[in-house]
Design brief:
The protein is mainly α. The chain is built from eleven helices and no strands. α7 packs antiparallel against α10, α8 packs antiparallel against α9 and α9 runs antiparallel to α10.
Length: 332
Amino acid sequence: MDVEAFVSVHQPQWDRLAYLTRRQRRLTGAEAEELVTLYQRVGTHLAALRAAGADPVSIGRLSGLIADARGAVTGAQAPVWRDISRYFLVTFPAALYVSRRWWLSIGLVFYLVSAWAAWRIIAHPEVMDSIATPSQIQELVDKDFASYYSENPAQDFALHVWINNATVSAAVLALGILLIPSVFILWDNALNLGVNAGVMISHDKSDVFFGLITPHGLLELTAVFVATAAGLRLGWAWIVPGPRTRMQALAQTGRATVGMAIGLASVLLVSGLIEAFVTPSSLPTAVRVGIGVLAETGFILYVWIFGRRAAKSGEYGDVDEADREAGAPVSA
């Protein structure tokens, strides 16, 4: 198909559709019918241009026109709360479920690295000499580790924790396309957790360590694993696109990755509130740990119930089909 000739022939209809769309509130009955007819007709024009491999600018301009016309034809958009509920009940859990093997594997490796680092310190106490001085180690064990969670007002600490965790998650998510930086960040955090665990356990403070880490740490780390998985999947889609072109694979995975950011921010907000108000509270250790386990269990059930159901219906965390232009198949 001669794309330039096609555009030249149909441009008047597109201009007419744009004109009617702008006047949607003042249309006569006949013009309203014409608007619907042109909307349907221009939709077929867009499909033809995509199939012919037209330039992205032309396709993008026509997609925008159709989107505006769709709003004029269908009237008022669905309430915002409906979009929000769909995101948290369908889109976000679907993305989590589809990528579950990635973040579960990342979590397993993370905990294995942390366990290895802790074992090294417990089995070889001399390793602590290369970490800090004996007085610094004793200060951490006796005071610093526990006081970290209570030295600031809870509401201020919650905001600080949320910003810090969101920053780490955003970093591993954004740098995932480069693969190595995300792995390095996660490796560094795994070693840090393992070192703290080894130091506390070797000084008979395992109850303090797990009593303070578990309430918020399970959910918090899971969110970081998900963010890392999302970023690494983006990089892997570029390297191994499968049956798609690289740009299609990157666009599809990228949309799902960016779409997960809001959901992850919400998960980290919950873990931040737990860390600020539950972890340092006077509740019995068993209760605090139980709250953390309950939060993590709730997240896993959320993924497996809502995410599995959404994935079975064909969802995988991408945007609506009408907005998937960036990853639409094209053929010459």
